[in-house]
Write a structure and sequence with these properties.
heterodimer, A: alpha+beta, 10 strands, B: mainly alpha
């Protein structure tokens, strides 16, 4: 207990021992913060009263100090009192909780609507309505594997950093629609006071209105398989001007990235692009070495699919394999990405098929 | 019953009094004696506690530092899942059934359980189920890794280990249902003359209510996991949106089982505490009738609060409000129980032998778990805390400091009656203090981790969570090792037969039938002639 008390004292002085919620940056999050504090105080008072009585009794009513047992029992008045008092306290707690709950559920009239899709194991964001409509990207963990496996020192935002953060304007009501592609995930940003499960095949919603610029970090909060601990959420809240600028940049980028669907790619181009796509989307399960983690995640190196008929390979990547962890990547990746990654898989490691798959072939297979 | 069979001149001398039974292993395989079966239940659950504990310590070792050190993420998920399933279905539930087997006949003055052969069967199903669980670690893809809640559609993704897990749960469910039928029948039909329902010891009352809960909800769990099985192998789409199903339906069905299940694991604990505190305060239980009503209200409320486990899933505002208010309401009967125990202690003449220490420890630490439960009932706060370490802290406060401490209290309380020997009081006290201190070192910091934003069921975490995780891991090893002391204490007065001989009534304030009418140890066959209760 002494050790614990010392640790707690040390904790007060250091960020490594945070004792309470993260600083809230939305109205809902601060209401939750206050609600929690209010409850804490009430609970502390009850705690002191109840255990004050208990410890006094332990001290005073011991046989060793010669206390004789009285034989009283049952007392309707006392029993009514200790049923009614907790009930009244509960009503006192329910009142502010109800107010916050109703505000929490009010997702009407948003300035910006974004769909967050949970994938095993990354998030995809689609800007559906409002400024920036049409922007869509995937957001992957940016922490390198060698930090996770302790071969390199861990960075400042270890496990809470992504390649493409969600960018939103400050002081605007943002409605988040959640859904998922495979299993249930949960979209959680503690500083905003929101957590909403993302359910495959269904769309749910929540909202926030951040009142301070900054970078806020959260994580997937529903067990979703192997890499559940490795799919963070990073939200950058920026000023209105910066947001407009960011939107323009994204539009330019996506215009540049829109490839000519009939372009013939060279083997080298496909392989270079494919290696990147592989690292971002496939390596978590099938491993950078292509050896996989059998039996749940089979090896690609020397596998029947990756060395056999091309069309089976394309179909597997596009549509996944129902009943297994193999996801359908058709909706997540572009034709060029899929063509590139298949070409890479068919020519990497010990696979020497010499096949090059063109985006046009993928496009044809989609139908 | 036996009085009828044991008529003079009946058969061989060695079969008189039912004293004849096979020896060695076959005694245990074929036994229909409630004491033998109770003993087997208790040893089984202790074995499972150790297995589940090893899994827990592996989890805590991996979480000692950020980064992946000992296990990989898939195996980590198997560990958390199997730790939960083994502790809930293998350790806590069978331990209470063990208590029921030993104590209910002794406390109501019955010669044995009503269905003696079914009793044997319901025990021997358990080792089979446990073996399936252990074997699942060694099949391709490993053990179930979807969390003990087995949420679909993640659980439809798993390998054959999940099928073994589902089969094991079916078997354990069947075992629980048989056990409950037996307990209800015994209590309702075999009480000593004069023992009306409202004169039954509290432990018997809490088990009667628990047995009804089990019969009501175990089939619901069986239904949910059978649907998962069908989705996995028979092409159905109960939980698959693409086929017209709904993944959230699994959670509704699961928690309709799951919340009463929580009370299945705590009501018998309340019963044990309600026997121990009056015995050591040398004073009757303060509000016997209101304790019975409070226990029943908790049981009834447990059927209408399940969706508080799903506040972040989605519900209409009215649904959220209903489940929030209903959940908060549980605090009232739970408070009544705590106040009753306090009032029982008040102006008593207390001594603090190990059973009483564990009972007071239970009261203190379980109530803290109750407070965090109240916090989690508040839906907006729950949104921040759902699926974080705060929840992990909360349910370990009620299941370890609640159920497990009560099991310890009950074991120390009744072991003189079971073995005829007193346990080692000094070692018992050491066991209590080590358990209490290390328990809090392990689980108290988890509240802070959850508040600060650490999700549960993750194999690796961001650097700011390191400090409290280190403390928790150290505490976990201390807690785990302390339980070996418990093993030694039990072995010493049980199988090794050492220690002072126990009198028939070693506890001054204990006044139920097993203390007043039977010697210690209780004879192999007790209450041939039922005692009269005034």
């Amino acid at each position: 207990m002494v050790g614990l008390a010392l640790a707690l004292n040390a904790g007060l002085a250091s960020a490594a021992y945070r004792l309470n919620f993260q600083p809230p940056v939305t109205r809902i999050a601060s209401e939750i913060y206050d609600l929690h504090m209010l409850m804490m105080y009430v609970i502390l008072v009850i705690f002191c009263v109840v255990f004050g009585v208990m410890f006094y009794s332990i001290y005073a009513h011991r046989k060793s100090v010669g206390h004789k047992a009285e034989q009283f029992h049952e007392n309707t008045t006392v029993e009514i009192i200790w049923t009614v008092i907790p009930f009244v306290i509960l009503i006192g707690m329910a009142w502010p909780a109800t107010k916050t709950l109703i505000a929490f559920k009010d997702t009407s009239n948003p300035d910006l609507t974004i769909k967050a899709t949970g994938y095993q194991w990354k998030w995809g964001y689609d800007y559906i309505k409002g400024e920036g409509e049409g922007i869509a990207f995937l957001s992957n963990l940016a922490t390198p594997q060698d930090q996770i496996h302790n071969q390199k020192p861990k960075g400042e935002n270890y496990l809470l950093e992504v390649d493409n953060p969600l960018v939103v304007p400050v002081d605007k009501k943002v409605r988040i629609l959640t859904t998922a592609n495979d299993v249930i995930h949960s979209f959680w940003v503690p500083a905003f006071g929101i957590k909403q499960d993302a359910i495959p095949g269904f769309v749910r919603d929540t909202w926030f209105k951040a009142d301070k610029e900054g970078t806020y970090r959260g994580q997937c909060a529903e067990l979703c398989g192997k890499d559940h601990g490795f799919m963070p959420i990073v939200v950058e809240v920026v000023s209105a001007e910066k947001y407009t600028q960011w939107v323009a940049e994204q539009k330019k980028k996506s215009a540049a990235a829109a490839e000519d669907p009939n372009k013939q790619w060279t083997m080298a181009e496909l392989q270079t692009k494919g290696e990147k796509v592989y690292a971002a989307n496939c390596a978590a399960c099938h491993q950078p070495t292509g050896k996989g983690l059998p039996p749940a995640f089979p090896a690609l190196d020397g596998s029947k699919v990756a060395t056999g008929d091309k069309s089976v390979h394309i179909d597997t990547v596009l549509n996944g394999k129902p009943g297994t962890a193999m996801a359908a990547f058709g909706k997540q990746l572009s034709d060029a990405d899929i063509a590139a990654v298949i070409t890479y898989e068919r020519n990497a490691w010990g696979n020497k098929t010499g096949d090059a798959v063109q985006p046009a072939e993928v496009k044809a297979a989609r139908k | 019953m036996s009085a009828v069979i044991d008529t003079p001149g009946h058969g061989h001398a060695d079969q008189d009094d039912h004293a004849y039974h096979p020896s060695g292993l076959m005694r245990w395989v074929t036994t229909t004696n409630h004491k033998d079966i109770g003993t087997m239940y208790l040893w089984f659950s202790f074995t499972m506690l150790l297995i589940g504990g090893v899994l827990a310590l592996t989890i805590r070792s991996e979480l000692f530092e950020p980064g992946m050190q000992i296990v990989n993420p898939e195996f980590f998920n198997q560990l958390t899942t199997m730790h939960g399933i083994i502790m809930v279905f293998g350790a806590i539930m069978p331990a209470f059934v063990g208590f029921a087997n030993w104590q209910i006949p002794l406390m109501i003055g019955a010669p044995d359980m009503a269905f003696a052969r079914m009793n044997n069967w319901s025990f021997w199903l358990l080792p089979v189920a446990a073996s399936l669980l252990v074997i699942s670690f060694f099949v391709p893809g490993g053990a179930p890794a979807a969390g003990w809640t087995l949420y679909a559609p993640l659980s439809t993704q798993m390998g054959p280990g999940m099928d073994l897990g589902i089969f094991a749960l079916h078997i354990m469910g069947a075992s629980s249902i048989m056990g409950s039928i037996n307990i209800i029948t015994t209590i309702l039909n075999m009480r000593a003359p004069g023992m009306t329902l409202m004169k039954m010891p509290m432990f018997v009352w809490t088990w009667l209510i628990t047995a009804y809960l089990l019969i009501a909800v175990m089939p619901v769990l069986a239904g949910a996991i059978t649907m998962v099985l069908a989705d996995r192998h028979f092409g159905t789409s109960f939980f698959n949106a693409a086929g017209g199903g709904d993944p959230v339906m699994f959670q509704h069905i699961f928690w309709f089982f799951g919340h009463p299940e929580v009370y299945i694991m705590i009501l018998p604990a309340f019963g044990i505490i309600s026997q121990v505190i009056p015995a050591f305060a040398r004073k009757p239980l303060f509000g016997y009738a209101s304790m019975v009503y409070a226990t029943s209200s908790i049981a009834i409320l447990s059927f209408i609060v399940w969706a508080h486990h799903m506040f972040t899933v989605v519900m209409p505002t009215a649904g959220l409000l209903f489940f929030m208010y209903a959940t908060m309401l549980i605090a009232v009967p739970t408070g009544v129980k705590v106040f009753n125990w306090l009032a029982t202690m008040w102006k008593g003449s207390m001594t603090f032998e190990t059973p009483m220490l564990f009972a007071v420890g239970f009261l203190f630490v379980f109530t803290m778990g109750g407070f965090t439960g109240l916090m989690l009932a508040i839906m907006p706060v729950d949104v921040q805390l759902q699926d974080t370490y705060y929840v992990v802290a909360h349910f370990h406060y009620v299941l370890v400091a609640g159920s497990l401490f009560a099991i310890f209290a009950g074991t120390y309380f009744w072991i003189p009656k079971w073995t005829g020997r007193m346990y080692d009081e000094t070692l018992g006290k050491w066991h209590f203090w080590l358990s209490l201190v290390f328990f809090n070192i392990t689980f108290f910091p988890m509240h802070f981790l959850g508040l600060a934003g650490m999700p549960r069921r993750i194999p690796d975490y961001a650097a700011q969570f390191t400090g409290f995780n280190e403390i928790a891991t150290i505490g976990a090893f201390g807690f785990g090792l302390s339980q070996l002391l418990f093993l030694y204490i039990v072995l010493k007065c049980g199988p090794l037969g050492k220690g002072e001989k126990a009198p028939a009534r070693p506890w001054e304030g204990a006044d139920t039938l097993e203390w007043t009418h039977l010697p210690s140890p209780a004879p192999y066959h007790s209450f041939h002639d039922q005692p009269e209760v005034k």
